[in-house]
Amino acid sequence: MKQVFWLSLLVLSTLLLSPLDMRAAGPPPVGGTLPDFTLPLPGSSTERDYLGLSSRGNFTVPDIKAKVVLIEVLSMYCPFCQKEAPIVNRLYEAIEGNPGHKGKIKLIGIGVGNSAYELDVFRKRYNVPFPLFPDADFTLHKQLGETRTPYFIAVRINEDRTHKVVYSKAGSLGEVTPFIENLVKLSGLK
Questions:
Q1: Is the confidence at residue 23, as pLDDT, over 80?
Q2: CA-to-CA distance for 75 and 50, rounded, in angstroms?
């Protein structure tokens, strides 16, 4: 009986004293930063120009030439993501159509469990105008806290490339205009 007690105490103390990064971290919290990950440079010159990228190879979110980057975590198989696609497209159009926001706020999507081919099918079916990046092996999904889809993370990028998460939520964006107003307020854009 004593051995079971001491073994149980040892297991419990190991779990309680284990490093926090070994536990499920969840999605990036508001006020925090994104995990350190890279994305492949888009093959399309239109997408590279939109993101303000000219180098070859991989890039990080803070490399994007914008004040705020909104990341949509999605899956082409997610019915909620499919339903949200027209709303996100309207968001993109509203940002690009507003001289005060164009170039300051940019969107990207990360397709969890999706190959480049699958994302291309999603892009064509829903006329997605912003860059989508495959995450076929769920590597990024794990780094982003294994969020449900769709999930939206907005990051404020500073001149020195440091960044801060200003929005982190699952589900629909809701109405486009109030969402943009809220994003501008949360990120401190003028």
A1: no
A2: 22
64 half-sphere exposure, CB direction, 13 A CA radius: 29
pLDDT in tens, 159-185: 999 999 999 999 999 999 999 999 999
3-state secondary structure string across 70-114: EEEEECCCCHHHHHHHHHHHHHHHHHHCCCCCCCCEEEEEEEECC
What separation in angstroms does the CA of 98 have from each of 50, 102, 160?
A: 15, 6, 26
Q: What torsion do the CA atoms of 59, 61, 62, 67 make, to the nearest 10 degrees?
A: 130
Overall average pLDDT of the 9-15 stretch: 42
Helix (H) / strand (E) element for 163: namely strand 163-170
The DSSP H or E segment spanning 181 is: helix 176-187
Between CA 28 and CA 120 the distance in angstroms is 27
33-187 maps to which CATH number? 3.40.30.10
- pLDDT score of 146 more than 60: yes
Backbone angle region of 31, left / alpha / beta, with phi > 0 → left and psi within -120 to 50 → alpha: left
Other C-beta atoms closer than 10 Å to the C-beta of 90 total 15
Cα dihedral sign, 94-44-163-71: positive
